[in-house]
Amino acid sequence: MSSPQVFLVDDDTSINHTLHKLFNSVKLTHQIFTSAEDFLEKYNGEEGCLLLDIRLKGMSGMLLQEKLNNHKINLPVIFLTGHGNIHMAVNAMKNGAFDFLTKPFHNQELLDTIHHAISSNHDSTVIEKERATLLKKINSLTPREKQLLDAIVDGKQTKEIAAAMGISINTAQIHRANLMKKTGAKNLGTLINMVIKAKHQLQ
Asked: What are the C-alpha distances in Å from 106 to residues 18, 23, 33, 35, 99?
C-alpha cells in the first residue's frame, strides 16, 4: 500500500510552486492539479488529504467537495484560499471539511494541519479527543461570549451582533477578544473551524 499523500488542487502557479518546494523539503508525497476536473479524472482512491482552493477555473472547490461527499469519498478536505469569508468557512465545515485556512499561510501551521488530517483519517479516536478538547474550551465561555460565538458562526458582523445583543460595538469587540483568548483561536476562521468541528464532526 502506498503512503498517504497530499492532493493539491489550485490554479495559482505561484502557490503550486511554493507548496511543491515546501512538500519536497519535508519529503511529503504529493500531486498537483490545476483544476477540480483534472483531479476527479485522475484520482484513484488513494489515501491522504485534499488541499483545495475555493475559486478555480471551471468547477469550484465547494462543488468538488459536494461531489466527493455525494460519492462517499472519505478524503479529508483542507480549504486553502485567499478569497474566504465567514459564510464560506461555515458552509465548508458543515459539509465536512477538515479545516479552512486562508492565504497567506504559515508553513508550519499548514504542515501540522495536513499531518493531523491524514492521521485523523486512520484513527477515529484522534477526532474524538479533539472534539472533547474543543467542547471543553467552548464550555469555558460565559453566556455572553457563547451568544457572541453563535452569532459569529451564523456569519453576522460585529455591528449586527452588538445591535442584537444590546451592547456597544466596543463591548462586542472586547467579548470577542476574550473568547478568542479562551479558545486559543488565532483568527475568526480558526474559531469557526473549532465550533463546527465540536458540534458537527461526529454527527
From this structure: 12, 13, 21, 24, 14
Q: What angle do CA 161, 93, 63 make, to 5 degrees?
A: 115
Q: How many angstroms separate the CA atoms of 190 and 180, rounded?
A: 9
Judge whether 87 and 93 are in contact, CB under 8 Å: no
The count of domains in the chain is 2
**What are 140-170's pLDDT values in tens digits?**
888 888 888 888 877 788 889 999 999 999 9
Each residue of 109-118: pLDDT tens digit?
899 999 988 8
- Of 103, 122, 141, which marks where a domain is finished? 122
**Residue 118 contacts by C-beta under 8 Å, 6 or more apart in sequence?**
4, 47, 48, 49, 76
pLDDT over threshold 90, residue 33:
yes
In this structure, are 100 and 136 located in the same domain? no
Residue 148: how many CA atoms within 13 Å on its side-chain side?
25
Phi/psi for 145 (5° steps) reads -65, -40
